[in-house]
Design goal:
The structure is a single chain. With 415 residues, the protein is of the alpha+beta class. 53% of the residues lie in helices and 10% in strands. The protein has 17 helices and ten strands. The longest helix is centred in the first third of the chain and has 27 residues. This is HNH nuclease domain-containing protein.
């Protein structure tokens, strides 16, 4: 074979190797071998994708020659790919080539996968955006920290860590930046929020709007209470109802149950919310308050002034925080967790605590870590949120489980 270029030569060898195993029968692999094959394929896929993005970052000349908007657009057209995804690849390729070189090295070595790279690159971009005064050494430390944690965490956990990375690396400067961003975000929401609707003439109306994150959070909390997925599924003969339609049905139920006598000129009673804030922050107007139950793991934040406004017009349920930030026990001696306990557990856990499950905690059941029948206590500390599926599995004698240091569960079928 005549050598043309290391990349083209390597790809020729790769294709030749794939041709040889293309007819292999994967079903013949034993379970342990399948595990290793899938791990090796995932690493190989990451390394090939890293090479593709590196070449893509250096292929602007292809777009100039063909008249395409960018190299990603050329690739999408040439290979019949989804244009949006190809353009996202082009943008990611540029970020890796110009800014995040350590992440590129880890990607090329197969130490991180594409999903992780997307999350880490976005977190780093958001970190430096609008923070021109950040020490470059801090940014580099953040990049290394996120790469190191990629060996233990998936995209969802890395996304949460990426949002909070600066709190760990620069705690003194973080509060001022957070307060400035939060006030700017609230001012932007107040300026840009809008709501409109238009009849489509077929019995439906298109509702369009942009609202503040805090308003959206409260609306979602209320609609989740009305949605009741299992009850709705039963009414639909067990068929799964898509979440957007489920929310529309919940919105309808909400409006039908509003008491007209309780809607004064000022808009009626406010909804119940959970606010996590220290008494000092609430009084002094410093720091930030959080609205709980966010399945992404990062609470929706509001200013202390906003929290005080809610206190004037809404039923506030405080989540009392200890010095280390933990939610204090709200429990009492009873077999079933009280509504206050359930709120605290869901506020803490965010989602089902089964490893990899992202069912929101508001849809989960509360499981006793030590069964009540075996002397277990009913408290926030000894309760955990599990979705219906995993709550059944944790009590299924066909399965065993272990609890990780971070509180998540991993299940195994007994042999």
């Amino acid at each position: 074979m005549n050598s043309q270029h290391p990349i083209t030569d390597s790809l020729a060898v790769l294709h030749a190797a794939l041709d040889q195993v293309g007819v292999a029968q994967a079903w013949a692999l034993p379970p342990e071998a399948k595990k290793q094959v899938l791990r090796d394929l995932a690493r190989a896929e990451a390394r090939v994708t890293a090479m593709k993005l590196q070449v893509l970052a250096l292929s602007a000349d292809l777009a100039e020659e063909s008249g395409d908007k960018d190299a990603g657009s050329w690739l999408a057209r040439d290979q019949r790919l989804e244009r949006r995804n190809a353009r996202l690849d082009d943008k990611l390729a540029s970020a890796l080539d110009t800014r995040w070189h350590h992440l590129t090295d880890a990607f090329t070595a197969g130490a991180v996968n594409l999903d992780q790279v997307r999350v880490i690159a976005r977190a780093l971009d958001e970190l430096v955006e609008g923070n021109d005064d950040l020490d470059p050494e801090l940014v580099q430390r953040a990049e290394h920290t996120l790469i190191d944690h990629a060996t233990k965490f998936g995209p969802r956990e890395l996304r949460i860590l990426g949002r909070r990375i600066l709190e760990h690396l620069d705690p003194e400067g973080t509060q001022a930046r957070d307060e400035r961003r939060l006030r700017d975000a609230e001012a932007h929401a107040n300026k840009t929020q809008r709501l409109s609707w238009r009849s489509l003439g077929d019995g439906t109306t298109r509702l369009t709007g942009v609202i503040g994150d805090d308003v959206a959070h409260r609306l979602e909390t209320i609609l989740n209470a009305f949605a009741q997925p299992r009850k709705q599924a039963a009414a639909a003969d067990g068929k799964l109802i898509p979440r957007p339609r489920l929310m529309a049905l919940a919105f309808r139920d909400l409006l039908e149950r509003l008491d007209p006598t309780r809607i004064p000129d000022h808009g009626g009673d406010a909804t119940t919310v959970v606010v996590t804030i220290t008494l000092h922050e609430l009084r002094e107007g410093l720091g930030k308050a959080g609205l709980g139950f966010d399945p992404d793991g990062d609470d929706t934040h509001i200013t202390p002034e906003h929290a005080r406004r809610l206190a004037c017009q809404a039923q506030i349920i405080p989540a009392v925080l200890g010095q280390a930030g933990e939610i204090l026990d709200l429990g009492r001696a009873s077999r079933l967790h009280t509504p206050a306990m359930r709120k605290a557990i869901r506020l803490r856990d965010k989602t089902c605590r089964a490893d990899g499950c992202d069912i929101p905690a508001t849809w989960c059941e509360i499981h006793h870590l030590v069964p009540w029948s075996e002397g277990g206590k009913t408290s926030v500390k000894d309760g955990v949120a599990l979705c219906s599926h995993h709550h059944h599995i944790v009590h299924d004698p066909a399965f065993d489980h272990e609890r990780h240091p971070d509180g998540s569960f991993r299940f195994y079928r007994r042999r």
